Fold this protein.
Amino acid sequence: MLSKEMEKEINIQINKELYSAYLYMAMAAYFDNKNLSGFANFFQVQAQEEVFHAQKFYHYLFERGGRVVLEAIEKPQTDFKDVKAVFQQAYEHEQYVTSRINTLMNLAIKESDHASKAFLDWFISEQVEEEASMDSILQKIDLVGATGHGILMLDAQLGQRTYTPPASQE
Ligand code: FEO
């Protein structure tokens, strides 16, 4: 059985992950409106990953005898300065999510909740990838510049991204 505090924090995290999906869908919509379908595809796939993260927390909470309580999802920003600003914001958002995962892990350690520690290990590694992915695209945008041919090449590259079904992610 989970502590009440851990139950509360996991419910908050479900909301944060669903907000992440919503934010990335808003970013996808921004790019679709600009006919940059590759960037839009990248964020649609990212949104699917975030829903998977939320579901992973949801199932874990049930498994441990907790109660899932869904709260309202905050409205995401819908307009952005330019391509670089989107990725800068996505990168900063992933850093925030990492800080949330660290908060959960710190709580699990404080409570000697070994099952939660083992569960959260997956997210600790996942966040390394999440931050690296946004940072690497940000660096490429810096290389090619925020407008022009380079951006179209990057758009074509990001259009190749596909969602990996959750079963093979674990
Ligand atoms: Fe669920 Fe992108 O962290």
